[in-house]
């Protein structure tokens, strides 16, 4: 048993409270391919008082990646930017094609990002789930964690613009379908070639 050095655990799942779990369940199924693992109408075994419900979901081999705890009457916080909270959760794709394909698929369902950006180290699309939680879908532009870390630590561009440049996902899709490589698309995006017709409001992340 190691009692001297830090063991590095992996992030295994996130837990979210909600006032209405069903829309959340359907959204996470559609967006992330989550499947229902288990649902309980009374996970605490309470015989009286508040009886929360709980749902466990996963999109891979883990027993769950997302858990929802539903409390009756729980509402969104209209002043959440003034309170401590988890700001966003990110999910990473292996390739730009996976990210763009997901964007196109979700757009057909009426689910579109509230902020798409090329951050230099990665291309990221931020979405809001039904409760307003910020969910980021991204791909590493380098395809290499070490190089990506190097970019964040030493790039003057990143120091100048940590949130990167705003992009129009449809323009990225068109460029990829026209034969541009992922790296070429990243470079063109950073040069402003894929800027949206109307700038996005960065306050959506607050």
From TrEMBL:
A Pfam cross-reference name: Glyoxalase
Keyword Metal-binding: no
InterPro entries xrefs: Glyas_Bleomycin-R_OHBP_Dase, Glyas_Fos-R_dOase_dom, GlyoxalaseI/FosfomycinResist, VOC_core
UniProt keyword Oxidoreductase, yes or no: yes
Stretches assigned to the VOC domain: 10-140
Organism: Bradyrhizobium lablabi
Lineage: Bacteria, Pseudomonadati, Pseudomonadota, Alphaproteobacteria, Hyphomicrobiales
The protein, known as: Glyoxalase/Bleomycin resistance protein/Dioxygenase superfamily protein
GO molecular function: dioxygenase activity
